[in-house]
Amino acid sequence: MKKNLIMLLTAILVLFTAVPALPSAAAEVNAQDQQTYELPFTVLQADKDEVSAAGRHVESPAQIKIEDGKTIAYMTLLNSQYWQSMKIQDGNEFVAVEVVSEDEEAKTRLVKFEIKDVKKILSAKAHIIVTGIPGMGTYDTVHDIRFQFDGSNVPADKENVSKRKKQINQQLL
């Protein structure tokens, strides 16, 4: 009887010690899932690992937010009056970036798109039209460019966060 009582008290002690720690760990993962950080990048030419002149018209670093388990890049385009569109490669196709906001006075546009892997170079197409510059005529071209992100300081990636979340959920059950 005494042995059963000691085992029961031990079980209760373990239960009351472990349970309060679990919700805070779950909250920690949830906070990581909503994290925001800066991600420097370089704009490269389409066919060479050399810096593209287009890089002067995009502000680095990008702001990265984890939204609904996806890595979303918020990037500021400079001289936005020239940018007709930008598309990011997603598998075998190019998809338009979403315009978040535009500041006509500052001539900037904030766009967002999903990044599947910050360690891989991301191909893009930028449609640029420049008019009104004396002696230049109309410049209307779609540029193939690539974004190379510097993921060396990226916090825990979403795969690790997802694994940790599953572990905590299993512990809670």
Question: What's this entry about, in short?
Answer:
By secondary structure, this protein is of the alpha+beta class. It has helices at residues 2-18, 21-33, 158-172; strands at 36-39, 41-45, 58-67, 70-78, 83-90, 93-96, 98-103, 108-114, 122-133, 137-149.
What features would you describe in this structure?
It is a single chain. With 173 residues, this protein is of the alpha+beta class. Strand 9 and strand 10 form a beta hairpin. Helix 2 runs antiparallel to helix 3. A five-stranded antiparallel sheet has the order 1-3-4-8-7, with no helix packed on it. A five-stranded antiparallel sheet has the order 2-10-9-5-6, with no helix packed on it. The chain folds into two domains: 31 residues; 126 residues, Immunoglobulin-like, CATH 2.60.40.1850.
Name the descriptors.
5-stranded antiparallel β-sheet; single chain; 173 residues; 2 domains; Immunoglobulin-like; alpha+beta
Secondary structure layout:
Elements: H1 2-18, H2 21-33, E1 36-39, E2 41-45, E3 58-67, E4 70-78, E5 83-90, E6 93-96, E7 98-103, E8 108-114, E9 122-133, E10 137-149, H3 158-172
Antiparallel strand pairs: 1-3, 2-10, 3-4, 4-8, 5-6, 5-9, 7-8, 9-10
Helix pairs in contact: 2-3
Tell me the strand percentage band.
over 45%
| Name of the top-level CATH class of the largest domain | Mainly Beta
Order of strands across the main sheet = 1-3-4-8-7
Low-confidence stretches: 18-32
What is the number of strand segments?
A: 10
Structural class: alpha+beta
**Which descriptor suits the 3D outline?**
globular
Gap between N and C termini: 30 Å
Cα Rg? 24 Å
At CATH level 2, the architecture of the largest domain is: Sandwich
N-to-C SSE string, H for helix and E for strand: HHEEEEEEEEEEH
- Share of helical residues: 25-40%
Largest β sheet strand count, sense and barrel closure = 5 strands, antiparallel
The tally of domains stands at 2
Number of helices: 3
- By CATH, the topology of the largest domain is Immunoglobulin-like
Indicate the mean pLDDT: 79
